[in-house]
Amino acid sequence: MKSIYLSLALIFLTSCIASTPKTSNEVYLGVKVTEDKFKDQKWLESEIYSGTGGTMVANFPARIFYRALYEKNELQYIQLYTIVAFTSWRFIHSATSEDGVELDFHEIDRSVGSGTVTEHFAISLSKSDLIKMAKKNWQIKYYGKKGDGVEIVPKFLTEGFLKKLNCFSSNSCK
């Protein structure tokens, strides 16, 4: 009887774990559009990509996603949102892309819980940045008071989000 309960618990737990997208088509199909009619805003947001399996440099385990804001059907901004968890503070404060460009950095939140320090931040990107990043896995270096890290943004993640952004802008999404 214990083995039945254990098996059921295992099935339940594994079904609750969100899968991370693995192809540009999965990213494209997974982009959610939410609307606030009162503010005439629409958000496009990709699913969270978990950087396990060698996509992040060892000292920078991150979860990332893209988001874009439209107001009155005009693109306002695009951001790459990052969530990192460490055992101590890093105080991430700035970022530079692999081509040497200093990126527009936005600190979102910092919190502590269960022995883990979590930092949330975003970098603003242009559509031309996405076009460049969709050509190859793209590296971004983050700088902090107590440690730096390199994030590798998979090509397919950028490709899928850019494809959704383009079809949304032209009202041609299927």
Task: Describe what you observe in this structure.
The protein is α+β, with helices and mostly antiparallel strands and 174 residues long. It has one domain: Immunoglobulin-like (Sandwich), CATH 2.60.40. The chain contains 4 helices and 10 strands, in the order ααββββββββαββα. Strands 1, 2, 3, 4, 5, 6, 7, 8, 9 and 10 form a 10-stranded antiparallel sheet that branches. Helix 2 packs across helix 4 and helix 3 runs antiparallel to helix 4. The longest helix has 15 residues.
Describe this structure in a few short sentences.
The protein is 25% helix and 43% strand.
Key traits:
Immunoglobulin-like, 4 helices, 43% strand
Structural class: alpha+beta
Give the CATH superfamily: Immunoglobulins
Rounded mean pLDDT score: 84
| Fraction in beta strands | 35-45%
Reconstruct the topology from this structure.
Elements: H1 2-16, H2 24-30, E1 32-36, E2 41-45, E3 49-50, E4 62-71, E5 74-86, E6 92-97, E7 102-113, E8 116-125, H3 127-133, E9 138-144, E10 149-153, H4 155-169
Antiparallel strand pairs: 1-2, 2-4, 3-4, 4-5, 5-8, 6-7, 6-9, 7-8, 9-10
Helix pairs in contact: 2-4, 3-4
